[in-house]
Write a structure and sequence with these properties.
This protein is mainly β. It has one helix spanning 2-13, and strands spanning 20-23, 32-33, 42-47, 50-55, 58-68, 72-79, 85-91, 94-102, 105-114, 117-124, 130-137, 144-149, 152-156, 160-163, 166-172, 175-177, 180-183, 189-194, 197-201, 207-212, 215-222, 225-233, 236-243, 246-254, 257-263, 270-275, 278-285, 292-297. The protein is extended, with a radius of gyration of 28 Å.
């Protein structure tokens, strides 16, 4: 570490006197001026039309700015580790093209404007695939009143949308439906999707349960964070507990009797098997959580 710090100090001592160093983040924002690049933290070095970002003493990306008169600016960023390239082209200060080259594949997005307002985004991807998303704006306030995805147009209002001859109702944030629905006494929203399927959402748009035939999946939250998922299908029941939106353990029951308990670990899950309430075996998995490492029998 000391050798790295000394090297960096000497390196930037010899740099052009016009270079400026800033404490930064991985977005490349200038947070505050710094005297030198240290071996801990994120630092942005600005020298003329070139910027370099260092993370914990290692080069993260290099960015060059090319100005083409009269009004075009091209910013090219190359990530050191992957050698992926990101190129952005601006005209009159507005982004008009973005190209991403990664593992030999290039994706290009083009942006179109009218009276300074974005009206379409065209994306050219792999295998010559092209998609176009355009925005329909009102003639007075220039507010977005509709979105077109490759010709499929959806008109918007505060509560309703119109898409492909269907009237969609905005029931809650992120919850749009054209199915039969009703508001329950507690404010939850019941949506009948078909004769065999129905879902219940909270007034905030969180999925609370989904029933399809005999299979019922229930979702429980703490301050909108998922903490448990219970699945019942006939005599079988599974309970998964979550933390940070990731499952950390799972219980499986048959006829209300516990048959297994799995603990999810980065180094591989551990599954304890039960029979008539007692442990009969413990299965240890490898990192892929599919390959069995070993089984311990009781």
């Amino acid at each position: 570490m000391r050798k790295t710090a000394v090297f960096l100090f000497l390196l930037f001592s010899l740099m052009n006197l016009n270079a400026q160093i800033f404490r930064s983040n991985q977005l490349g924002q200038k947070l505050e001026k710094a005297d030198r690049v240290e071996d801990k933290g994120v630092f942005l070095v600005e020298e003329g039309q070139t910027e370099t970002l260092y993370v914990d003493g290692s080069l993260f990306w290099t960015e060059r700015k090319l100005v083409n008169p009269p009004d075009e600016t091209v910013v090219i960023r190359i990530y050191e580790k992957s050698q992926d390239e990101l190129s952005r082209t601006y005209k009159d200060g507005r982004l008009v093209k973005e190209e991403v080259t990664s593992s030999g594949f290039k994706t290009t997005q083009s942006f179109g404007y009218s009276d300074g307002k974005l009206i379409f985004v065209s994306t050219d991807g792999e295998n010559n695939s092209v998609s176009v998303q355009s925005f329909l704006r009102s003639s007075d306030k220039k507010d977005v009143i509709g979105v077109s995805d490759d010709g499929s147009v959806r008109f918007l209002s505060d509560r309703y949308s119109f898409q492909n001859d269907l009237v969609l109702e905005n029931l809650a944030p992120g919850l749009v439906t054209n199915g039969e629905h009703s508001i329950l006494e507690n404010g939850d929203i019941l949506i009948i999707e078909d004769a065999d399927t129905q879902s219940v959402y909270s007034p905030k748009g969180l999925l609370l349960s989904r029933k399809k035939g005999d299979r019922l999946v229930s979702y429980m939250y703490d301050d909108e964070y998922l903490i448990r998922v219970e699945t019942t299908d006939g005599a079988s029941k599974t309970v998964e507990n979550y933390s940070d939106n990731k499952p950390y353990d799972r219980y499986e029951y048959e006829n209300e009797v516990l048959i297994s308990h799995t603990v999810f670990r980065p180094e591989g899950s551990v599954k304890t098997m039960y029979s008539q309430g007692r442990v009969v075996a413990v299965v240890y998995y490898r990192k892929d959580n599919r390959t069995v490492d070993r089984i311990e029998y009781n």
